Amino acid sequence: MEKIGQQVFLYDFYGELLTDHQKSVYEDIVLNDLSLSEIAEERGISRQGVHDLVKRCDRILNAYEEKLHLVERFLKTREDVTRIRDLSAEEVGDNAGVLAQIHRISERILKEL
């Protein structure tokens, strides 16, 4: 997954666990696409300070994901649901085979929940 996409997912799942200051700066970088210089000027801190804060937030959010795996499970569930949708839209002669696949995928989803 691309870095920005991963940062957005991590922030969506774990962002509330950051301090207000960390959230604000991280949102500016990841969601608002501001540069380090723009944020530094706006907040009256150094560009290096912004860089260090963003790196620290990345480490914190990644540490939560390593322990909890919420993003990983979400992406896997989304993939499974997409597969179920695709299977249910197929018009095939072997409906029993398609239904068996749908059943297996849905069983896996239910076990993970």
- DSSP, total strands: 0
| Global mean pLDDT | 89
Alpha carbon gap, first and last residue: 24 Å
> Helicity level, as a percent range?
over 70%
Helical run tally: 6
Query: Uncertain runs with pLDDT below 50, 5 residues or more?
Result: none
Described by the principal axes of the CA atoms, the overall outline is elongated
Return the string of H and E elements: HHHHHH
Strand content is under 5%
C-alpha-based Rg, rounded? 20 Å
The main sheet comes to: none
What structural class do you assign from the helix and strand content? mainly alpha
Mind sketching the topology for me?
Elements: H1 3-14, H2 20-30, H3 36-43, H4 47-68, H5 70-89, H6 95-112
Task: Describe the fold and architecture.
With 113 residues, this protein is mostly helical. Helix content is 81%, strand content 0%. The protein contains six helices and no strands. Helix 1 (3-14) crosses helix 4 and helix 3 packs across helix 4. The model has no long low-confidence stretch (mean pLDDT 89).
Question: In a few lines, what is going on in this structure?
Answer:
By secondary structure, the protein is mainly α. The chain has helices spanning 3-14, 20-30, 36-43, 47-68, 70-89, 95-112.
What labels would you give this structure?
single chain; mainly alpha; 81% helix; 113 residues
